[in-house]
Amino acid sequence: MFYWDHAASTPPYEDVIRTIAEVMEQHYGNPSSMHQWGEDSSRLIKHAREVCSRALDVKPSEIIFTSGATEGNNLAIKGATLQYMNRGKHLITTQIEHASVYESFQQLQQWGFEVTFLPVDSQGCVDPASIREAIRKDTVLVSIMHVNNEIGAIQPIEAIGDMIKRCNPRTIFHVDGVQGFGKLPVDLTKWQVDLYTLSAHKFRGPKGIGLLYVREGLKLTPILTGGAQESGLRAGTENVPLIVALAKAMRKASEQQESFNSNVSTMRDQIHTTIQEIKGLKLHSHDGSAPHIVHFSYPGMKSEVLLHTLEEQGILVSTRSACSSKQSEPSRVLLSMGLSIEEASSGIRISMGDMHTEDELRLLQQALRISVEQLEPLQRGRMGK
Amino acid sequence: MTYDMLLLRFGELILKGKNRRRFEKSIFLHVKSVLSPFPLVQLRNEFGRIYVYLNGEPASEAIQALKKVFGIASISPVIVCKSDLEDILRTSHQYLQDMNIQNDTTFKVSARRVWKKFPHSSHEMNHLVGSHLLKEFQMLNVMMNHPELELRVEIRETETYIFYVVIPAVGGFPRGSNGKAMLLLSGGIDSPVAAWSSMRKGLTIECVHFYSYPFTSQLAKDKVEDLARVLSGYAGEIKLHFVPFTETQTSFTGMGQDKLIITLMRRAMLRIATTLAEREGALAIVTGDSLGQVASQTLPSLNVVGRATDLPILRPLIMMDKNEIIQISRDIGTYELSIQPYEDCCTLFVADSPATNPNLRIVERLEQSIVKLPELLQDAVERTETVVLTPTNGGRLSTEKLIQEDWF
Questions:
Q1: Strand duo A172-176 + A139-145: pairing
Q2: A22 CB near a chain B CB, below 8 Å?
Q3: Which chain B residue is nearest to residue A42, measuring alpha carbons?
Q4: What's the rounded mean pLDDT across residues A54-58?
Q5: Residues of B in contact with A42 (CB under 8 A)
Q6: Comparing A117 with B339, which gets the higher pLDDT?
Q7: DSSP characters for B240-305?
């Protein structure tokens, strides 16, 4: 089987796996315990925090370890909104956010907050000017993802941050960085970001661990209570092996970001060419999108069918965000980009890492051609002809 | 704006006397070490100034690093052009354009002709450059006294410097130019600030930390080590002495004089620090005392405590307010570490209301009643562990063993 679903989850580095096993074996002391073993665990976390903070060029005290991006996004959005309710009840996000962001806002709506869901253009990008129109005196928080997980659109985060802080310096800016870190340059200070979410398994770390950057001075209402861990923002015994592994994966990803980007972009361009060559396929990602995500649709064929046809040839791809791929409605993200229901129901995402080889790439291209050839007679609209 | 060079000025103080050369050399070496992460940078030392040619390295980051160099009074980012009237006019024009001045701004030009063969005098240059810029920039208004923008043009034989920004730097005396002192580093907010203040005055400091395992935790030691590492960012490296204080400290309990324990402890610390100072060739002891802050820092307490040593005790924070101290500790990067909640040995065994007005004779009599006190102090000195910290090294052995590098 050939795995082309890296935007859903990446294969962990071998030495990350080894690190987890070793730390798990040697340091099972509870970091909150006062004895030597507890202190040892606590020191490991401290060192990991330093490594993570260096990768983001922020202070160690600004890093909160979480169980992953879902928790990070929930903590950022609900935690900041509840903490700063006195500033107002208006929130801004986009129509193309990941479900963990989108549904957090829906929940806040039910709790009486007013949410503006910004539209995107045909490339899947938010216009910074739309922020200027939407932002108000009582806007507490704006949350915008860096890279869209379905189509790979890169949002103009720096321009958006600039716009937010110019229109209302008190508005908090959250960025879901899950698909961007390790793939594109990140500069939280320049972007004027207050909160930034990451998840380790998107850059070859383990699942179940992530972090939230919380700018110094910003307060959050904790979502999980019950202990003073992580500066009281995230109760629960710290997962020492995973925290160490996160640090390692993060360091490696940030060190290798440039070479990752150039290797994967080359591959992406080749896949783009193939898709453009195959009649019937419609490409949605483009040269300016994130380097690791290719998105296209096969109008007239439910995405699932093409997915399984490719799978028969040993190629694993995705229909959309893994978190919502079992839903049967057309993708919310694609619809908001202005795609037709037919296109939005037939989307396929290919996502990669830089360990993919030339041979694997050739197999993928071949499988795409063969599958479309096989399916073409069955395409809706062609039946009966 | 891309700057070509940084101009570093020394404090006025060091330009006096026979020590000037030594001072300048010391600052030069310090500048060189803090700029080592910028490989393209070239340095030139000249008449009370250092010129830092950036050669494309980022100015703002270099300035941040240079703000840690003691003895530098101010920094000006400079644009360099040819010593040629046309070029000077064009570059000044470009410079102002890049500044993007929006509103009315008062302005003057201060030209300085260091190279006397340049065809126009300084006075003429003020006029030439000034009138050229006034014509181009409507929002400028000339003002001779205290203008908002004073554009300086320094004409030298090889090149001309154009600048106006003067960034205040840390000032003080060059690193290590005023001898060595032992500093009592507790882990609180004050003592790191005292350390920084002393270093700014040109003292080399070695830190002494008293720990009372098992009454204080290992993490408290880590914290002190982290603090010393931050301080080493200013000094290059810092020696940190860990003194085991448990036995000395416990010898003061059970005498029914709990109110005086803090006084006895402070005196014992000074004695140990004095012995270490003799061993290390230091001529003073520095503390983070601030008058009236706690019971051991009342004037009577300072008096009784201070008599335990013959060395001068320097107290840089003695007249400062807590808020000022906190501000400095934030600026120098020690605050976040200092507020971590680990007990230090001063908070142990201390009475709820320690004596604010201790009696020297009673204290001395108590000390004499502990027969083995000199022996305990000597033993503490002998069992002192010393680590040398630099901004990047790992420090103590236990930590090194614990943190396996290949895990990260």
A1: parallel
A2: yes
A3: B219
A4: 95
A5: 219
A6: A117
A7: EEEEE-HHHHHTTTTSS-GGGHHHHHHHHHHHHHHHHHHHHT---EE----TTSSGGGSHHHHHHH
Q: What element of type H or E holds B314?
A: strand B313-314
User: Does residue A324 register a pLDDT over 70?
Assistant: no
Express as a percent the part of chain A with pLDDT over 90.
83
Q: Flag whether pLDDT at A385 surpasses 50.
A: no
Q: Is residue A167 annotated as a catalytic residue, yes or no?
A: no
CA atoms within 13 A on the CB side of B65: 20
- For domain B180-389, give the fold: Rossmann fold (3.40.50)
Q: Which of residues 220-259 of B touch A (CB under 8 A)?
A: 222
Mutation for B interface: A14, A45, A46, A59, most B CBs within 10 A? A46
Which residues are within 8 A (CB) of B311 and not within 5 positions of it... i.e. 6 or more apart? B274, B277, B282, B283, B284, B285
pLDDT in tens, B226-271: 999 999 988 888 999 999 999 999 899 888 888 899 999 999 999 9
B contacts of A44 (beta carbons < 8 Å): 402-403, 407
- C-alpha distance from A105 to closest chain B C-alpha (Å): 33
Which tens digit of pLDDT belongs to each residue from B347-402?
666 777 888 889 999 999 999 999 999 999 999 999 999 999 988 765 554 455 67
- What domains does chain A contain, in order, with CATH numbers? 2-7+257-377 (3.90.1150.10), 14-252 (3.40.640.10)
- The ranges assigned to domains in chain B are 5-168, 180-389
**Per-residue pLDDT tens for B118-167?**
999 999 999 999 999 998 888 888 888 888 899 999 999 999 999 998 99
pTM for the whole thing?
0.76
* Fold of the CATH domain B5-168: VC0802-like (3.30.2130)
